[in-house]
Amino acid sequence: MKYFNFEKILYEGSKSSNPLAFKQYNPDEKILGKPMKEHLKFAMSWWHTLCAQGTDPFGENTMNRPWNQEDALKTAMAKVDAGFEFMQKLSISYFCFHDRDLVSEGATLQQTNELLDKVSDYILVKMKETGIRCLWGTANCFNNKRYVHGAGTSCNAEVFAYAAAQIKKAIEITKKLGGENYVFWGGREGYETLLNTDMELELNNFAYLLTLARDYAKEIGFDGQFLIEPKPKEPTKHQYDFDVQTVLSFLRKYHLDQDFKMNIEANHATLAGHTFQHELCVARINGVLGSIDANQGDMLLGWDTDQFPTNVYDATLAMIEVLKNGGLHKGGLNFDSKVRRGSFTEEDLALAYIAGMDTFAKGLRVAAKIIEDKALDSYVEKRYASYKKGIGLDIVQHKTSMKDLEQYALQHDQIQNESGKQELLEAILNQYIYE
Ligand code: XLS
Ligand code: CA
Ligand code: CA
User: Fold this and answer.
1) What is the pTM of this model?
2) Is 98 a catalytic residue?
């Protein structure tokens, strides 16, 4: 049975007015010597694409999703068919999943695990048939009410044990599906009030859970990259994995920094009061830029709207960071994005993915040109030229003392600064985007 009433989406170029065609994303076209599909390892999010029903706090389901049925296992299998049909038609080579996206929970943990085995067996068949791969898997340790006080940071040790069991199974399923990464997004790992919270114990426990997970993955020979996905708030008032810098200091304290990189989501960056580029840059310069959840928020709203990315400006700045990182390696670009509640047809899903993929494809094209021409880098190099010689070089090479610097300052106290040229650089960036 087919679920999507359109043919394979093809690249028709920027002049095309066909809504069901790519205008920028041409998978095999080479940019900086590498096919676009390798720069942009696009992934379908199982949850937003196949599971989300369009509910909000004020209203019921709105989505037309013909794969949903009465029986949980039948629905799960139909979702696999729908997902693979969709990815093939959109030329999306990867998917990402939470364990509970694949199939809903059975009556016991044992039964849930058996259901997962069945559905993942079928996914494996479809993967072999199509060549589509798994970018990452993760465990949903936040939806069920047992996780009301968190999972690894719950005040209830039984919940900690249950979460560990769930994560163990999710790592096994991810390994079985050849997942290139495994993600930890700290669902409810945070707090509502410090009045009832032992933050130190919670953080110690959380780090212990990550350590156990890392060791177990090694034990079973899972060679995917472990990723942490920062987010500052929602669902809890304060999420422990606030932003990249906070997660880095946590990982370093618990000696986990060699085993974890970051999965950076655009909407989480902006919720933390940062730009998407800021988070990518902090990760890049610390060697932990792992993967991307491509989406965008609404600047007028203070929550996680997970919209499809259509902002070419931000996508360009993001792709500059990715290119400077030498690519995302094991990582990719997962559309952790959902169609709006009013966009309820199956076709809307395709239109949304086309918009997101074209946005990042355009971002890649512009970023590549900017880097190739050194359009911004040459200004930055010039701006820091004082560190290339004389006292600046001594500073960079750590060859000065406070006394040397005082001597220097006493002799050179008539300082002249140069313009930062911000507006010019913004205009240059625009010029590249206009082309
Ligand atoms: C929620 C997160 C979540 C993670 C995976 O805000 O973005 O979807 O990406 O658990
Ligand atoms: Ca995400
Ligand atoms: Ca999000």
Assistant:
1) 0.98
2) yes
